[in-house]
Structures are given as structure tokens and as C-alpha cells.
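hi!! sorry for the late reply, been swamped w classes. u asked for the two structures so here they r. pasted raw, havent cleaned anything up. first the sequence of the first protein and right below it the C-alpha cells
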Amino acid sequence: MRRLLCLLAGVGLTGMVVLAGCHKDAGSGNIKIGVITSLTGSQSAFGQAHKAGYQIALEEINAKGGINGKPVELSIYDDQSKPDQAVQGVSKLVDQNRVKLILGSYSSESTRAIVPVVTQKQIPLIMPTSVADNVVETGSQWVFRICAGSGSYASATLDFLKNNGNPKTLAIVYENTNFGQSNAKSMTAAAQTAGINLVDSEAYQASSPDYKALLQRVKSKNPDAIYFASYLLDAGTLMRQSEQVNLNPKYYTSAGTGFAAAEFPSETKGAGKYAEYTLSVSQWLPSAKWSGSKEFDEKYTKLTGGHPAYHAMEAYAALLVAAEALKKTGPDAAPTAIRDAIHNIDIPETPFGPIKFDARGQNAHPLLVTQIQGGQYKVVWPLEAAQAKPIIPAPEWSKR
């Protein structure tokens, strides 16, 4: 895989790299697609997963002749995990690199920041991973989201809970950003509808070294379940410190993201043993029954040395959609034609499932609920997709 891809740096734009299939004419007459993601900064683990997913899709597309006989090239802008950098990335990709389509960013915070910019510049934006629902609620006709959003996360989690013990009380712990706020809002409304009593809701500033006081407040409310909306670094810290304060809900649940990252169960990059029994919403796993999932897992593992979580698959699917739209319009089409082609996309089968967008630009993507058992993510809900039975309640820390 590595031999099939060229990574060229230093093309004259700060924060830019280019990925191109290794054709003889690479860099000459290629079709350019812009990408904004987080190759550095606090969300770099997810951005690097994005990059690997894009590389796999790029190799497949170019191996089949590219788009209408022309190879595809990705201009990737590193937003450094910062919304203001993501905004700068749009300007550089559109005004200097002359792309007619952008994929990105990773986080909801950065993606929400670029929605007004792509709308003003009239450039289609395909979002692979941003789950805050407000990224598709602006009324813009230029945005499309591959993944399911925060409202679906809350619904899937509560569907699992209602059918697996039916807890009566819930606490929410969330990062105080667009991502966290959207997930907290969605879960608050969904819990109320489901008749679950919300006993505590705690916002925190990301990347803090100490959450023990917050976790003590949650412990004092004795919730049956906790719902976390956290990125990877904080997910690990929160779980390790939950053990330190002896916080023992029956269910540790989460809005995916850090709790669903491939690194989360690892001792070196995640929570290690403290990740055991946590439940998470997941958009995809290598064991998913969609055709091509196993093959993607094999390619990703060969490329990176580790198995993928859903973030890489979402990037892969986003590039497939972009390529399909450009095949329909031709690469020299106006952005409005490319936008309309994306609106009309209807792909019944991909390794990420069927892809079709509604009037808001939202793909109707089904969700899974997983639990970490023995250091591995196991699908536990819905029943027709389950690999294992959920372990409920989570064992108390003193009994692990």
C-alpha cells in the first residue's frame, strides 16, 4: 500500500500536503479534491485516521482509472485541530488550489466554523465525521454529512438502555464545545422523552489534567448511567479518574468519538484496562456486515499496523461519494452541478452501508452500540447485528 501512494510535502501552501496516486503524470492534469482535517494538535489521532482512509480510497479510485480517465489528487490542509485554521484552509484550497469540492473537517467545532465560508464561496462540502447536528441545520444547500448525528447517537443509546435494564437516572458529562454541547442537548431531550430522570449535567474544558472534582459531583447524584461526549485524551483521563473516585454507575455510555477510537482500549494511547465495559455508539466496525468492510480493515491494517475505527471508514466513504459525483458531472463542471450531483447520489451498497442524502444533506446511516470486552469492541446492539451479550451492570471498580 505504501508503495502505491506518494506523499509530497512543501507545495507552497502552509499546512498543505498532497496525496496522489503514483501515476507517471501525477501532479500534471490531475483532478484535485480538497481535504481539511487535523493532522496535528489535540485531535490528530482522528485526523491521521482520516488520512489513512483517504489514502485507501484514493488508491482504489486511481487503480480503476481515476475519474473519467484522469487520476485524482488530494490537497490536504492540516487545521491543527483549530477552527480558525480550518477556516483559513477553505480559502487556501479554493482560492489558491482551485478545488471545486472539499471534504472535512474532523471536529464539529471546526466543521461548523467552515460551513458559512463554503456556503459563501459556493463550494460543496462533504462532512465525514462531525456529529453536532447544527452543521446540517443552517439551511445551506452546499453541505452534506456522511455520518449519523448527535440526535441519532442519543436515540441509539436510549434504545439500547430501554431494552437492556431500563435505567431510571442519567448524568451527562460533556466537553464544552460545539461537539459536546450538541450531544448533551440531544441526550437531554431524548432522555426526557424516554422518561429517564437527568440528575446531573456537567460541562468541562477539554484537555484538563484533573476531572476528579467533576466526577465526585456526578458520584454524589448516584446515576444509574453516565453519558460521555469526549475526545480521546479526555476519555482516557475520565475513565482512569472514575476509578480513582470509585464512581460506579451501572452503565458507562458515550457518544462515540474518544470512547470509540481504535486507540481507546490500548494501554499506551488510551484508557487501557479502564476502558473495559464502556458502551459506545459506533458508526462502523470491521465486523460490520456491509460488503467491503473486511477488505477495508485488511488494507488499513497493512497501511498503519492497526485496525481501524469508524473515523477512517467515514473518510473513505466521503471520498467515494466525491468521486462518484465528479464522474457524473465531469471534473470541469461548475460547483453548482457538482453540488446537485451529490444531492442526487444514491449508492445502495458501500463498505459504510447505503449512502443517500435527504433535503438537509444528511445521509440516513444506521448506528451500532458496542461494549469493550476483553480489550475489544463488541457489537451488543441491535440484536440482529450483535456479536456478544452486554455485560450489565459494569462491575464495580473494587471487583474488577
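now the second protein. again sequence first, C-alpha cells right under
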Amino acid sequence: MRSLPAVRCWLFALVVSVVSVASFAQVSIAIRIGPPALPVYEQPLCPDEGYIWTPGYWAYDYDYGDYYWVPGTWVLAPEPGFLWTPGYWGWGGDRFLFHEGYWGPRVGFYGGINYGFGYFGNGYEGGRWDHDRFFYNRSVNNINVTNIHNVYNTTVINNTTVNRVSYNGGSGGIDARPTREEEAAARERHIPPVGAQTQHVQAARANPELRASANHGRPPVAATPRPGAFNERGAVPAREAGAPYRPEDHRGVEQPRGNTSVARPENNVPRPPAPTHAKDLTPHPRPAAPNTGNAKLDQKYQQQQEKLYAKQQQEHQRLQQKQEQDHQRMAQQQANEARTQQTEQRHQQQTQQLEQRHVQQQQHLQQRQQPANRNQPKPPR
């Protein structure tokens, strides 16, 4: 059958375009050497209402074989009521695995890591939502009350052992397991890191000074007032390293001396950036004509494919027009930075959800057609 490979190619192209959406809550990379300790740094001032603190963490760059620091930063919540669950490193039995952070209505498990500023190992003590407004706990956040009035003061009793360990499990790692509430939070609706966060990580990766081998666990830019604002006045350096960084002390298991090999993933193809707008999506190819050897069945399948193709094209065009109208309206109203960023985050969410839905529809159609295809007699040679 020539139709199935064509459909699978189409599906593969669509899946690649949304792989960042489908995998945001999955393990993304794995190595054998644990990350450095969390550096000691101050939190920059919150730039405006609606921004939520996302703590800094160590990411890994396979091209350089080194960890690099992703500065903590204030990020606009993608929608009211959503909180940030930080990502974390965990020992998986034979390697360290990184679990991506996400936005959701509740804070889930983040390895028991004490990131500070309200993230003391479980939950979040830095603030709470009241309908569509976020109220900040001044006892753990750096808030200018002249500009932001929705604040409160609640002293947080931190029962977590104070240390700078940045990973869960393994040799010297945090010994913590998710609670039932955290497991339930992980099953709720999530939103992956927004575009501003993705760009923030990419900028950190491109900065050689943020690599552990260069800063020895004390990054020159530890936190920023906004994503990517590494050179702004509000950016702060680390006061000190959390601990002297010796990679051999951060192994998950005992290994022979001299063995500093890093386990690279079998497929180290970088993921494409998540599409932000409908106009950024790769146009869907028209499905190939089925060829099962049964003309009547081929006609039926062709009609089903064309109907779904036309429907998806219309949905794509409607979303693109709506997003362009949003841009025109913001330009006419001279929208401020906060509103512009919120709109862009909403557009990214809409675009990714549209593509994910289209992939699922194609998979469903293929599953409906395959059983009948397999039962059809082969055409004569």
C-alpha cells in the first residue's frame, strides 16, 4: 500500500512540529555526572504584577560536555491561576535525568530541591492567586510595594535541610519522593515553558561564561528581572558558589577512577523550537491518494482524508487570522510589554494545541483505515 507510508510521513512531520508540546513533562536528557550545587544569589525586583518567579537551575550542553547555568527570572504567567513547577535533576538508576518544568493550577513535585524564594522543596510559598490577580508574599520575594500593591506578609517556616544540593537521588542527592497531592498535580492540565523561557535558556546556553567549567559554580549572571535580560541593570551575579564543584563528587554511582565518560542519548537531534503563531507552522501536505487495490474503498478513504484535510486547513486559517487581528489591535492600542507578552504566550498555546489536535485526528483516521486495509486481498501482480 502506498497510502500508509505517505500518511506516516505526514504524521511524522506534524509530530516533529509539536514534539516540544508532547514532551514538555517528559525526561529530556540524561548524563552520569550530577550538576553543581545551586549558587547563592539575590532575587531581582519583580518587574510588574502578574510575573511569577522561576528559579535558576543547571542545564547540560552536550556540544561542550558541560553544565551551564540558566539564571532565575521573573516570567509572566501564561494564564491566571497557573503556577510554575520547577524542573529538576534526578538519579534514574544508571544516569541523571532532567525532568522539565511546567505551568499548572498546582505546583507538583520538583525533586525536593530547595531553590529558595518560596520553592523550599515542596509547594510554593511565594504567593497565591485571588481570582485573576496574583498576591506576593513579601517575606520571600523582592517586591517594590510602590509599584505593586497586591502583597502580604507570611513568615515561612522552612523545615527542609538548608543545603545547595541541586539533584534528587544518587550519591549525595536529595532523598525525597512525591506526595499523593504532587502526583495528582502532575496529572492535571499543564502548559510547557512559554516562548520567553525557551529563548532565555537558549541565550544562557550561548553564553560561555555561564558554563560550570568557566565559573566553577559561581555564574556571573545568576538571576535577571525578565527572561533574557542578562545585561540589564537589575541582573544580579552569584555571591558565591553553593559548594566547590568537583564533578567526580557528583556521580550517581561509584565508578572506577579516571572514568569520566558522559552517557549521551542515542538520538541527540535537537528539538525544533516550538511554533509561536499559526503562520509559523509548516503547511500541511495534501494526503496522497490511497491505493489498496479496491477502487471503491480507495474512493471512500480519499473522501475521508480530503474532508479532514479541508477542515484542518480552515482551522489553521481561522487561527492565523485571529492572531493577526490581535496583533493589529495591540498596535492600535499601543499595548504595554506585559499585555504583549501575555498575548504572545496565549498565541503559542493556541498554536501548539491546534497542531497537537491535528496530529491526533490524523492518527485516529489512520487507525480506522488500517484494519480494513489489512483485510483487503492483495491486488494481482
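hope this helps!! also noticed smth abt the second:
Residues 3-10+275-375 form one domain.
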